[in-house]
Design the sequence.
């Protein structure tokens, strides 16, 4: 995709009675814009599932807003027939916070990437999550800067050779899920572009959560980082390479659930239940509603080749949202002091006459 490609925003989805009453389909959320990603890019699969999930939420199009920053993923507002805002680098969470506070009834979504959201935008991302603003934040992680042609990103693996790290990067990568957990996000999940069913299920869970919802979406970049998540994306190896997080269920993986995950000396260990069936009682039972993010953080660290990659919802807890508390403060202030009068405010207090 060219960084200089000319695009125009689709027309705003003006509300209509028919639009509000009928059952919407994915086609209703498609625009007339040419989708301009490289052939084979994982963004296509993500776009399709987002459009399908939006259609099933039972809300008219004019109640959705998509906000993005800069990057390949940030072209999203052009391709979803809702209200949208293409922002500047890293600032999408700040813009989206303003939208949500101005109209709390809107369903506000942020689309960002590992370069946009975890470099210049890290601060904005963390504060939106810790405030528990009711935003749905989708972070596309392809471990590379794709739009600017292949430099290493904050999530690139240690030692990765790229155009900007020809001898190998000497930085440790950021773990997006652990970052969201550390920021006290009330909903944290991970999914992958190559599993449409799991992707759609995760998106819907985030959409229905009340509060800040963060989803890391593992995504392929065919041009600059081909194969970054092949072990996890390959359906033939999915049973061994993925551990699916199911609330209230023991953590198992492998064919027929042969292997399980336990904790020994505060470290995760793989248990072969075929060889040691008596150890089934030691398996970790997933709990998305734990008040402590410790278990979720441990699961977020699991990586090949020693462990499968954890996919699913890591944490989902309830807490008052930022905009709810803000509206409450405004109502209390009005009840106590009456409706504001700007002119009276400007003329109140001590004044000076400058001659």
Sequence:
């Amino acid at each position: 995709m060219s960084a200089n490609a000319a695009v125009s925003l689709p027309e705003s989805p003006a509300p209509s009675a028919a639009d509000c009453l009928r059952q919407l389909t994915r086609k209703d959320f498609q625009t007339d814009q040419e989708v301009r990603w490289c052939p084979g890019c994982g963004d296509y699969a993500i776009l399709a599932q987002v459009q399908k999930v939006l259609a099933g939420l039972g809300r008219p199009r004019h109640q959705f807003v998509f906000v993005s920053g800069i990057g390949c993923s940030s072209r999203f507002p052009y391709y979803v027939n809702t209200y949208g805002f293409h922002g500047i680098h890293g600032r999408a969470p700040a813009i989206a916070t303003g939208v949500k506070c101005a109209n709390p009834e809107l369903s506000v979504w942020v689309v960002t990437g590992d370069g946009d959201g975890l470099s210049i935008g890290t601060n904005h991302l963390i504060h939106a999550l810790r405030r528990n603003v009711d935003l749905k934040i989708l972070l596309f992680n392809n471990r590379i800067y794709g739009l600017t042609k292949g430099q290493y990103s904050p999530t690139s693996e240690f030692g990765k050779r790229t155009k900007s790290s020809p001898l190998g990067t000497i930085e440790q990568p950021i773990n997006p899920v652990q970052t969201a957990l550390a920021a006290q996000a009330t909903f944290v999940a991970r999914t992958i572009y190559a599993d449409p069913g799991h992707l759609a299920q995760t998106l819907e869970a985030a959409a229905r959560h009340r509060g800040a919802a963060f989803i890391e979406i593992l995504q392929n970049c065919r041009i600059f980082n081909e194969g970054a998540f092949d072990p996890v994306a390959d359906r033939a190896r999915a049973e061994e390479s993925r551990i699916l997080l199911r609330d209230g269920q023991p953590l198992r993986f492998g064919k027929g659930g042969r292997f399980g995950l336990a904790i020994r000396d505060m470290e995760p260990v793989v248990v072969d239940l075929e060889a040691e069936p008596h150890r089934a009682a030691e398996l970790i039972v997933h709990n998305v509603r734990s008040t402590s993010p410790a278990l979720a953080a441990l699961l977020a660290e699991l990586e090949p080749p020693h462990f499968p990659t954890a996919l699913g919802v890591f944490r989902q807890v309830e807490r008052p949202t930022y905009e709810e508390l803000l509206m409450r403060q405004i109502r209390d202030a009005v009840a106590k002091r009456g409706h504001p009068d700007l002119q009276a405010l400007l003329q109140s207090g001590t004044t000076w006459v400058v001659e």
Summary: The CA atoms of residues 21 and 60 lie 8 Å apart. DSSP finds 13 helices and eleven strands in the chain. The two ends are 61 Å apart (CA to CA). The chain has two domains: 17-249+286-322, 250-285.
